[in-house]
Amino acid sequence: MADPANDFIRDYQALAQQSWDAWTRQFQQPPAANPFAPAPAPAAGNDTLERTLAGLKGYFDWMQAAAGGGATQPAPDWRQQLQQMFGGASQPFTQAFGGIDSAGAEGFARQWQSWLQAARHSGFADLAGAPGATPAFGLNREQQMQQQTLSTALVASMQAITRYQELIQRANMQGMQRLQHKLAEPGRQIDSLKALYDLWVDASEEAYAEIALSDEFRDVYGEMVNTQMRARQLQQQQTEQICQQLGVPTRSEVSSLGERLQALRREFRASQAGGPADHADEIMALRRELAALKRQLAGTQAAALEPKGAVAKKTPKVTRKPVATSKSSASPRKRK
Amino acid sequence: MQTPVHIDPTRALGDITTFQRKLAAGMASLRNMREPEYANTPRELVYSEDKLKVWHFTGHGKATSKTPLLIVYALVNTVWMTDLQADRSMVRNLLEQGEDVYLIDWGYPDGADRWLTLDDYINGYLDRCVDAVRRRHDLDAINLLGICQGGAFSLCYTALHADKVKNLITMVTPVDFHTPDNMLSHWCRGMDVDLFVDTMGNIPAGLMNYVYLTLKPLRLNQQKYIGMVDILDNPAELENFLRMERWIFDSPDQAGEAFRQFIKDFYQDNKLVKGTLEIGGRSVDLGMITQPVLNIFAEQDHLVPPDASRALGKHVGTTDYTQLAFKGGHIGIYVSGRAQREVPPAIHQWLRQRG
């Protein structure tokens, strides 16, 4: 038997999906085809845009699912109802949290794939399937050892990313628990999908912040960054070897030149700083000192030429006055 | 127990319809939207070196302040947060108060700047900018306003070149990098920064932005854009939103060596408050700062926790120390309506009292 209400929702959802797709296409339109242009490289901003759109779409899907079932139907166990809304297959928040934990990993994996392809084209052997310190020998011994080292580093990096993702997932779960606690607070009533969503965001951010400030997170985060950098550095070393074989200037060489240039600039600045302006000050100070010495010398010579009696006459009589002690003179000066 | 969630199906459907309608309207709005401009308060170039520029803002009237104010911004993000849009411009408001405002625009570092150190930035670029402004006004000392990382630079600079700074203002400036709520600092401490910089060279702006977003991932990656849907049919608000997006994501890369030093010495080792920091071989002692200091921080700052800024009062040498807590966040302190009303007048008043 037909159910007009459900049919309407289904029709509406189909229509909404169509307009959503149109909106997404609007922002993903490729530029007009230019037969002379090279194949476009993926734009850096596209990842962000895709994540943003995925986030919006996730929210949109969740609203539809919640309106079609969970949130608007009375349920005997509201906690279970919440779990279904936020933890089920249609939950929108995989995108939000997924965006956090997978963006770095995806970028790294993509970069790794590109590098691997380039390495193959350049005559490097395929990586061994399983990493490990298998002794290598023969003409290509060094390359094989390097490949093994890189392979090990990549596995370590992927493992670190997995540990990071586990912590993000834990934040997601604890956010759910916090949401239940918040909803169980006396007097709490939620009457709109947006209000429910906002409360979930509050709860999840609190859970995330607590985990993100833990020592465990710090260690896992550091390990994720460090292992990835180690793998990238090994990639760079191998790329440099390829460049050297092809006679292409390497990153290290350019960087070295930059370092030397900057050092020279510093030396030049320093020599300028000790240049005319500073010398003028120094010359002025020396002139003052010379003038003082001349005065002192002239005074000494004059004293030596005069008869002793005259000197004795000119010598003032030193008298000491009793020093009056007053409050004002005795108290220390106040610091302004 | 009764369910605390009571969502009327009709209302829920209405919410979805509204969301959908606004998305549809948004297509048209966004299609017709141009790249939003910053405030572009009239300014003249008074000094430049490499990629750096010093701008002098020209107000409608003559400045009443006798001592110019040089704004030292952070290396991360662009300086235009201080002059974002006509009705949200700290620079413009300072001019209206009568201040004579200069601003250092650090520019966008590239591979040629990979080896710039903190010494190059602080004892080099910043010192020459200060000298350029001093020369223009024939003054021994000028006023400095350091913002965020630029505030940390200004503190170092003032400690090392005390005779060139008359009054020092710091805004949302981290001083103690090891307060328990400092998420960035917490994450940095597990990183091998040498390996990081040796591998990356300059640090890409996109990576920096990504890290900032992960401080509050749900709010900044999703909730913010759901909020945007509400304003898609309001061109004026949408333009403001997009301008802010432009500012957030149009950011410079970080010069590798300076980044390495800043993370190691400030974030990891907290040397500024320990008194063990050295810039260009010279010891940086906050106790040497004896000129008047105004320290402004934001109470809801998620990048620079308030306690990280408050710490300045314990370490600075001056007896004329003023602290101002602003009710807002790291960005709101420049662009919120409250900030326009409160911050520039407070800065001007404080400076005027000190001549």
Detailed description of the structure:
The complex is a heterodimer of chains A (336) and B (355). With 336 residues, chain A is mostly helical. Helix content of chain A is 74%, strand content 0%. Chain A has helices at residues 4-27, 44-68, 78-87, 93-121, 141-183, 193-212, 215-246, 251-273, 276-305, 308-314, 327-330. In chain A, helix 1 packs antiparallel against helix 2 and helix 5 packs antiparallel against helix 7. Residues 29-46, 124-130 and 310-336 of chain A have low confidence and may be disordered. Chain B has 355 residues and is α/β, with parallel strands linked by helices. Helices cover 46% and strands 14% of the residues of chain B. Chain B is built from 15 helices and ten strands. In chain B, strands 1-2-4-3-5-6-9-10 form an eight-stranded mixed beta sheet, sandwiched between helices. In chain B, strand 7 (278-279) and strand 8 form a beta hairpin. In chain B, helix 2 packs across helix 15, helix 3 crosses helix 4 and helix 6 runs antiparallel to helix 10 (256-268). The longest helix of chain B is centred in the N-terminal third of the chain and has 23 residues, at 9-31. Chain B is globular, with a radius of gyration of 22 Å. The mean pLDDT of chain B is 94. Chains A and B meet through helix 1, helix 2, helix 3, helix 4 and helix 6 of A and helix 1, helix 5, helix 6 and helix 8 of B.
